[in-house]
Amino acid sequence: MNPIAVLGLDCRFPGAPDPGAYWDLLAAGADGVGPRPASRRVGDTRRASGPAARPDGGFIDDADAFDHAFFGIGRAEAAAMDPQQRLLLQTAWRALEDAGINPRDLAGSGTGVYVGAMADDWSRLRLADDAAITPRTGTGAGRAILANRLSYQLDLRGPSLTVDSACSSALIAVHLAMGALRSGECDIALACGVNLVMSDVLDEIYGQSGLAAPDGRCKPFGAQADGIGRAEGVGAVVLQRLADAREEVRPVRALLLGSAINQDGRSNGIMAPSRRAQREVIQAACRRAGVEPQRVGWVEAHGTGTPVGDLIEARALGDVYGGLRPEPCAISSVKGNIGHAEGAAGIAGLIKAVLALEHRLVPPVRTAGGEHPGLDLASHGLRLLTDPLPLPEGEMLAAVSSFGMGGSNAHVVLSSAPRPAPALRSDPHDPHGPQETEDGEGGEHPGVFTLTAPSAEALRRNLVVQARSLAARAQEPVTPLCWTSNVTRTGMGYRIAIPAEDTAGLAAALDAAAEAGEGVQEPPEPPVVAFLYTGQGAQYPGMTSRLYRESPLYRHHLDEASRALRPHLGESITELLLGRDERVHRTGWTQPAVFAVQYALTGYLRELGVRPGAVLGHSIGEFAAAVAAGALGLADAAALVAARGTAMEALPEGGGMLAVRAHPDDLRELLADEPLVGLGAANGAAASVLSGDLAALARIREQLAARGVGCTPLKVSHAFHSVLMDPVLPGFRTTADRITAGEPRLPFYSTVRGALLAGRPLDADYWCEHITGTVRFADAAAALLGSDVTHLVEIGPKPVLLSLARRLPGGSALPGIPVVRDAHSGALTAAEAAAALYTAGVDIRWERLYRPEDKVHARLAPQSFDTSARFWHEPPRPAAAPGGEPGTPVLSLVRADSGSRAPERDGGGLAEAVRETVAGITGAAEGTLRDDDRFYDDLGFDSVMFMELKYRLEEAVPALGELSIPEMMSSLVSVTTLIGYLREQLARVPA
Q1: What gap in Å lies between CA 440 and CA 421, rounded to an integer?
Q2: Annotated active-site residue in 167, 192, 286, 329
Q3: Per residue in 15-67, pLDDT tens?
Q4: Which of 397, 410, 513, 823 is most exposed by smallest CB count within 10 Å?
Q5: Burial per residue of 848-857, b for 16 or more beta-carbon CB atoms within 10 angstroms, e otherwise
Q6: pLDDT by residue (tens digit) across 888-915?
Q7: Rounded CA gap, 952 and 765, in Å?
Q8: What is the dihedral of CA 109, 110, 111, 113, to 10 degrees?
Q9: Is 429 a catalytic site residue?
């Protein structure tokens, strides 16, 4: 036995627009049947009985609504599509998301599509209207296209077929999907069922056959059972082999253990059910499932409410499930709640069974008058579920039946989902694993909730839906919700990312984002991100220790840097930081510690998918920048940084640094008189740092104060970047001469040169000059800001350079993102940086953000589609259009009256005729079509639309004769070029 996992599902049934509402309706024993909408009365006028004679039924709301823009389908094509195609697209999309699968990720895969359907009202109505026939009629109508449309729109390349076995269609589609998975024909399968009642033809057939319930309600196995009540619905389940689902850590809602299909053969009439055939199909399903029938706790029966059909089914069920068991086998049927969904009936029953197994409760059957006395269920080991049936813990087995009126039968045996395997956890032996920090902050790990949509309005709509859903789930952990959103809700043009550390806060943030209209359109080109590496002076005890404790990813890279430095330092940088050691302010430890933090942050971002397009380092920050640019390896950089810091600390203390609010040019005269003081750093127009002898600095400070120039002595142990560092050079060069010097493989904006460094290795000469030379940050940053960089990310223990960059020309225009803000920064601050970069257009590798135990699938509210666009059938003119109830717009795609205008031979009316023809094909609203619209890029033309355009133009302008397809295709650039081509053709026609 190779069980098939039900990964996800979605559905719409009468009174239930989604699976949650479906379960609520079933659990309450509620009724989804109601009056027939006027839009479902098409065709009634052909019979004297009239619309009022048709009974109630189960009808879904908004069956004419379709979010065509979401799927990239033009209005004209959407209007030509069978509404069943539209329902399937939206339902299948939501089912895949429910399965933890981003539908876009399946593009090009061998995913199979199996659709059960029997209704073909759309084809019949469209083909009866000659004026409505277009080249799109072939792909818009016909049951065969139902599955093919799903495969085409989602680019699924596995088996794709529509099954029509009448009322068993959907469950047979499930059976075929299970077989394809077991045979290896596909690895994931969509099994669906759909049914729409768009005419009364089948009502007439049921009525004349004595099968229709006068009140339009099914009463399965009930004392008042008197026939079928028709219903609509659509449902989809996502299936995968259980072994693969476990390997890929997919959610599992239930297991399909075995299935079987067969045919009545020659029975007592083609529409008469066969007890023998039903018994045999049930036995075969149990055998293939490896299940003794006595283990099946309850059966979701076909149960249409026809007296003969219910009797034969009850006897067949009793034959298999009724014997040798301590308690009678419970039976029920969803048709009592929603009616008989015909081609979708099997999927309605299967989804009910899955939900019941999940909720550990089987809803009671809704019927009239209690059990039909003629069934005598108890004598056959059965009982009708008139009360809810609680299910015990542990494995629970159920079964679903579906029988076609032509004798095609299906039965599926399923079980509750197995207990999920324990989530992988971070290494429990890691002494620095997730734990409460010393300041008492800890608890749930943060995540980033992502949402994308094809438009700003669609994004806002889905933000509202998610906010409302999560507000009711505030006690749930936030990381599974965030992780699921990263997997399933990305990839569309408008995006938003919201970092969160608890679900209540996330719900509030989503609501605020919707209210403010937040979210941005993905840029046409990926952003160019520059990494800015902070210099010495930003350090503090315990820097990044909280991030180290909360993020295994950051922890890995900091430990790697610490190991590289340890041979040179004799101690662990990691332990220094975690111990909040004050030695971090001593130069010999400061420089290695800052480097290690920057190396780890760079590795953290790289693993998230953030690749710098340029780098710039301030003083000691240039070493990590050089590693990021590929000019230094970790081992060489660690040796250089350790040698540099150790040598500088070995110098006698003395010397200092003075921050001066003045331009370097204004300090030249003062510096000329003080040879032991130099320009240590040029950070901006009024941000200079002097470095050198303390006495000389005091004299300069006194003179500057007299001029009213602000000065601030910096707390440093030595006069870095000055001539006082010369004694360090000989020993440092010995180390520097041993490194492998390379040229940066990324744009490297050197603060030694104050410019982009090109074609030069970062060798010993460079690093020696780096010690004594001026840090020319302002010049280097100005060059970087003048490049194609779009975003700045500061890599360091706290943001320093971002504020300096903002003061430079062009700096305030670029967004600045710190990865660490202060001593309290941890995984949440890093997640905020990832969220900001994602919003900017970076494709974040979200799986690297989370700990293993965080990556658990959580079910999110279904995708909310736009319902403003409506498409339905309009009867042929000149017959009066049927009345429509409020809120049910009726649209149609009809051929334009192309013969009403005959363009003059000089083309005077040609342009208008072309515009009207193109607008009619695309469904463009009046006034929205422009002459410079491009047929393929702007109007979405394909080969079918092209041929329709050709035929319509030939009808509209008979003088053109038959247009040449190759010539016309070459002119099909824009509306303007097409008009020009047709004018040329008219000019060639003899007078």
Answers
A1: 32
A2: 167
A3: 999 999 999 999 999 999 999 988 886 554 444 444 445 789 999 999 999 99
A4: 823
A5: bbbbebbbbb
A6: 333 333 333 333 344 444 445 888 888 8
A7: 76
A8: 130
A9: no
